[in-house]
Design a protein that fits this description.
- The chain is an alpha/beta fold.
- Helix 7 links the parallel strand 2 and strand 3.
- The longest helix has 26 residues.
Length: 422
Amino acid sequence: MPKTELKEYIVMRNREIENIRDLDVYLANGGYEMAKKALTSMTPAAIIDEVKKSGLRGRGGAGFPTGVKWSFVPKELNPKYLVVNADESEPGTFNNHEIIDENPHQLLEGIVISAFAIGANVAYIYIRGEFAYGARFLEQKIAEARERGLIGKNLFGTGYDVEIYVHRGAGAYICGEETALLESLEGKIGQPRLKPPFPAVAGLYAKPTVVNNVETLTNVPRIIEKGADWFRSFGTEKSPGTKAVSISGHVKNPGNYEIPLGITIREFIFDWAGGMRDPNLPLKFIIPGGASSNWLTEQHLDLPMTWDDMAAAGTMLGSGAMVVLDTSVPVVRAALKVDEFFKHESCGKCSPCREGTHFLVKVWERIDEGHGRVGDIELLADVGKQMLGKCFCPLGDSSVSAVNSAIKFFRPELDAAIDAQH
């Protein structure tokens, strides 16, 4: 088996089973049998316990244990909701697209099992508005499953009902944050809510709600099928399973990969993604977990790709979006582009983020256009200090990652960029 292939895919099964996106093919390969098993022979508590034992952590970015999150939902409060975060919109992130487009029924089966486990009869898939094809495709797949009695009323003769609806957002990055997503789903401006209360207690329409992302729920049928111990045969003790990772930038083979958690960044870039695109331009830095993550450099290549190892190194695995950049990239331009994104996507609810992102971009633009001033680097650092930890939600903090990373690893280049302008 080549080093860069899994012995068995968990969420990207389209890589080994042709046309699994078609319902008949999915059914021929055991599709919806785990929903039947869960609903007819397991209690909700037993499902939650199995997911807890598997160690499945949320694949949307935070890495919070999924079974634990489900267990926070109060049993006595009804109705309950399951909301699927398909808003995937951070630059460089496109792994959920492949699951939606190529393995949709495993996602839908995961939704049925998960909704049953938390006691929800309604699930919403919140998908970014621009993903028109994905939204229509999911609606088609839901209709197909409903016609076969796999979604809807009295599933498998158990008396359990569940409906799944697709809701298209208006295309705001902040709506990937779970409380802003819920506001948008309720028809309001997509801005984050103050927590607590957390969605598990007061979420959609102030009712108990679990928000999980696409990849997280697509793991669930396989955990029910093969058990927690099998799932733990992938990955590491604290980060079990696999991770769908999108890699882009200056690598030979950009794209989506499903990797076992725990391989090193070096293995991923050079063995799986083929290494640097131009051998004459070596690696300069890595944005490892989406634009919101702190950067890494060559000294971090042997860092294992797990939530805990990445956090210990001061960054994060995030939703699985690695951007690899070579020495042709000016640091000032890269940082400017990152902060332009956050300035554009700031919802404007709090002044540290609204004003801070604007200010960061103005200073980066000044340097990039050849008008940098002595003291601009200190000014960037001071603005970042005033923002970090003082914004209403993590978006504002995220914009500081590029500032602090650039100063930490490339201060001489920043100073030279300003000195050359005087």
